[in-house]
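FAQ: What does the model actually see?

It sees only this:
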Amino acid sequence: MRNILIIGAGRSASSLIEYLLGKSVDENLHLTIGDISLDLAKRKTNSHPNATAIALDIFDENQRKTEIQKANIVISMLPAHLHIEVAKDCIIYKKHLVTASYISDAMQSLDAAAKENNLIFMNEIGLDPGIDHMSAMKIIDEIREEGGKMILFESFCGGLVAPESDTNLWNYKFTWAPRNVVLAGQGGAAKFIQEGTYKYIPYQKVFSRTEFMEVEGYGRFEAYANRDSLKYRSVYGLDDLLTLYRGTLRRVGFSKAWNMFVQLGMTDDTYIMDDSETMNYRQFTNSFLPYHPTDSVEIKLRLNLKIDQDDVMWDKLVELDLFNPNKIVGIKNATPAQILEKILSDSWTLQHDDKDMIVMYHKFGYEIKGQKKQIDSKMVCVGEDQTFTAMSKTVGLPVAIATLKILNGKITTPGVQLPITKEVYLPILTELETLGIVFKEVEMPYEGYNPNSVIN
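And it is asked to produce this:
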């Protein structure tokens, strides 16, 4: 049998494992599922005869090398910074590698060795990055083949709560790593290009400059700018593009409310708060407000943020229990961001019967035969339950499909790469459609400079 080693059995691996186990008899596959938690790995096998669960410590070099050596192909679902040791072992033992993570400099440095050994190191083959690349390149290539010239590309993606599970004033729950949500937008100014002009948004302004859009059947959304929209300009062959903008989708009103935390300083992850373990939520909130001998924490916060008591912004803060003196942080040496994450997790954790939702939205502006045209492409995926979430499906299924295509010799180009060639994206997108991940494309009047967009 052909052995696929899957390293990491977290939430995003559920749909990946289910897909490969479903193909295991016809494709003669055996899955070795390794995780630091043997119990978690066992649960993911679902007692399938073609799967073996093992406790795998990625830092145990001998064990790691032994398991990689036994595999025909390796899937790493580890955190991005842990892929590199796996990748180096894959070079040594001549194994193909698949990850859903961004290509790091360290991974890119293995490109020559991968090509020399005729190995495929497929990265960025999840949702974002992944499905975004493939769905974008499909349309961009089609426009070019018709003789069109790209002049605008905007791309948005968001992990959200499904409408039937949307039960709080923020219209949001954690569907992915909460820490990434709390730290979103930090680490440098957001940068993009609009109508040929470079634009920069410093972190403290990111959530006050948003773009709005409609998705039929799901209502209105807003997007705030990703940190670096220009990262893929050359990769996509869009160096002379007039407008290039990538953003994160939320329900309308989220960004304005989130900006309150940014302005207060609650999202800061650069320093430790004293006595954080014994601090209560009310004390945490008060820490960011000026001293006053008589004003309450509530009054000070409303004055600081310039919001009225009948403002929905105030209701959103109250809903999170920020003023509760009986709830304790309970985290030693915590940063403000870590404490905020703890507080939000009380309210924003998906419940057992909640469903998540992925929304992706691309805008393609192009010129052909002297006319400017636009195509809007939209995809919505709603999760089944808390195991087979929309996030698990959209991250895990492209990884699984790519793995099988590589194993069967359908994807053959060697090297460290992302899925932007027809050899990769066409068969994967075609199969994703059969699994319910479908993009709907509509021709639109060309927007160009959008006077209704706050980002201009």
